[in-house]
């Protein structure tokens, strides 16, 4: 039987593909700041093609989609680090979520615990994108840890020229959110595995 106190495996997904992305840098900061008993594996969604229901079957599913679904399926929790595009999440991230959401009722996302962070050069710290993402995840019954909110606004001043997160408040919020994500994933694990073993 698996150790019930084993580390929480997290898959980290950034919603920006560009080199020099603040959100990718924020995800890297999360990997650096991960608390005890948590492992974060970064998944690159750049190779994931546009969703096509004709290909969404066991014979035709693209390799990048298989990898995405496998990584999400093997993780216990998901960390989304997303920019805000036009008051919502970028299409690349929605597209990856759409692939991972299928088939209905057997999505690898269902039942996972998640947390959301975001960085923007603007003032509002991706708050609207994060709200939208929570709504989307609710459709898959993903339990989102909501506190503290990691809203990195004015991002150009929060990272150094090597894209290290240097803002102490932001680092502390990232640490706290990851601890809360780990604790929630552990609580859910213990209630589920404890239930089945008793
Ligand atoms: C198509 C597009 C739409 C955007 N819309 C918003 C927005 O609604 N709110 C916001 O704060 N920033 C917006 N931005 C600015 C992004 O937050 C900014 O470019 C950010 O650095 C992108 O994240 P990244 O550095 O991880 O690539 C938008 C940028 C693009 C390209």
List its salient traits.
single chain; 198 residues; alpha/beta; Rossmann fold; five-stranded parallel beta sheet; 5 helices; globular; binds flavin mononucleotide
Verbal overview:
The longest helix is centred in the last third of the chain and has 30 residues, at 168-197. It contains 5 helices and 5 strands. Strands 2-1-3-4-5 form a 5-stranded parallel sheet, with helices on both faces. The mean pLDDT is 96. Helix 3 (91-100) links the parallel strand 3 and strand 4 (113-119). The chain has a single domain (8-197), classed as Rossmann fold, CATH 3.40.50. The protein starts with 7 loop residues before the first strand and ends with a helix. The chain is an alpha/beta fold and 198 residues long. The structure holds flavin mononucleotide. Flavin mononucleotide (FMN) is lined by residues 16, 18, 21-23, 83-87, 120-122, 124. Residues 16, 18, 21-23, 83-87, 120-122, 124 line the site of flavin mononucleotide (FMN).
């Amino acid at each position: 039987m698996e150790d019930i106190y084993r580390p929480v495996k997290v898959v980290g997904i950034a919603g920006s593909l560009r080199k020099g992305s603040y959100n990718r840098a924020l995800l890297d900061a999360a990997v650096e700041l991960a608390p005890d008993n948590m492992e974060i594996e970064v998944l690159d969604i750049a190779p994931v093609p546009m969703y096509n229901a004709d290909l969404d079957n066991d014979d035709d599913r693209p390799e990048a989609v298989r990898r995405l679904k496998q990584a999400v399926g093997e993780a216990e929790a998901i960390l989304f680090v997303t920019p805000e595009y036009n008051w919502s999440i970028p299409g690349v991230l929605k597209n990856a979520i759409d692939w991972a959401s299928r088939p209905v009722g057997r999505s690898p996302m269902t039942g996972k615990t998640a947390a959301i962070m975001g960085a923007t050069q603007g003032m509002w710290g991706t708050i609207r994108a994060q709200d939208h993402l929570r709504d989307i995840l609710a459709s898959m019954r993903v339990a989102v840890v909501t506190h503290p909110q990691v809203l990195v606004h004015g991002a150009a001043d929060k990272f150094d020229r090597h894209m290290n997160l240097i803002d102490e408040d932001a680092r502390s919020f990232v640490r706290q959110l990851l601890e809360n994500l780990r604790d929630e994933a552990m609580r859910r694990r213990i209630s589920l595995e404890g239930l089945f073993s008793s």
